[in-house]
Specification:
By secondary structure, the protein is mainly beta. The protein contains two helices and 13 strands, in the order E-E-E-E-E-E-E-E-H-E-H-E-E-E-E. The radius of gyration is 17 Å and the shape is globular. Catalyzes the hydrolysis of N-formyl-L-kynurenine to L-kynurenine, the second step in the kynurenine pathway of tryptophan degradation.
Length: 210
């Protein structure tokens, strides 16, 4: 029997916290159900990095693939969630035992004690580049986290993103991992297929594995 499906996405809404200076989320009703119109239709304004999202290589590599060119299969399959809430400035190899994730090609990190749904947090724990290198050496194809970026907010060198680039891995950011016990799951989190985009929102799901 298939296990329980857990939604680990943020709810896209006008109050959604966004990266400082980025585009705020907006939903506008353009058509209304009324005489002569049988449907409601809306217009969305949002950043490609709104809520739970997948970074395309183009986001950190001028010659990288756009999100519609990335293989969606990488976002679906066996994953392992590590609880690394003890990490402060960055998640380093000493904060987790990679051997526990045997058989999982997708690694997710929970860093927040409680996900900040209603406020922007600048001092989140990033992912150290040596952690990315370790994951890549183990055969991991994807790294994800609950923070808004693998790198610190003030970083101009994007060391973690560039470690991902060198390894050819995929990235998920902005996941909600509260109440997710450390362990093995199936990840289902394909990004929207937006031509030419540097990222795209995802409806990220975990399925429990018995």
């Amino acid at each position: 029997m298939a296990g329980r499906v857990i939604d680990i996405s943020q709810t896209l809404r006008p109050a959604l916290p966004v990266w400082p200076g980025d585009t705020a989320f907006k939903l506008e009703r353009t058509w209304h159900i009324e005489p002569g119109c049988p449907v409601n239709v809306s217009r969305l304004t949002l950043s490609t990095h709104s809520g739970a999202h997948a970074d395309a290589p183009l986001h950190y590599d001028e010659n990288g693939k756009t999100i519609d060119q990335v293989d969606p299969a990488i976002y679906v399959g066996r994953c392992f969630v590590f609880d690394v809430r003890e990490a402060r400035d960055a998640v380093r190899p000493e904060h987790f035992e990679l051997s526990r994730a045997e058989g999982a090609e997708r690694i997710l990190f929970r860093t927040f004690e409680s996900f900040p749904h209603d406020r922007w947090v600048s001092d989140y724990a990033a992912i150290a580049p040596e952690t990315i290198d370790l994951l890549a050496a183990s055969g991991a194809q994807l790294v994800g986290m609950d923070g808004p970026s693998l790198d610190p907010e003030t970083s101009k060198t994007l060391d973690a993103h560039n470690a991902v680039r060198r390894a050819g891995m995929a990235i998920l950011e902005g996941l909600v991992l509260d109440d997710i016990p450390q362990g093995h799951y199936e990840l289902i989190a394909a990004p929207l297929k937006i031509e030419g985009a540097d990222a795209a929102p995802v409806r990220a799901l975990l399925r429990e594995i018995g």
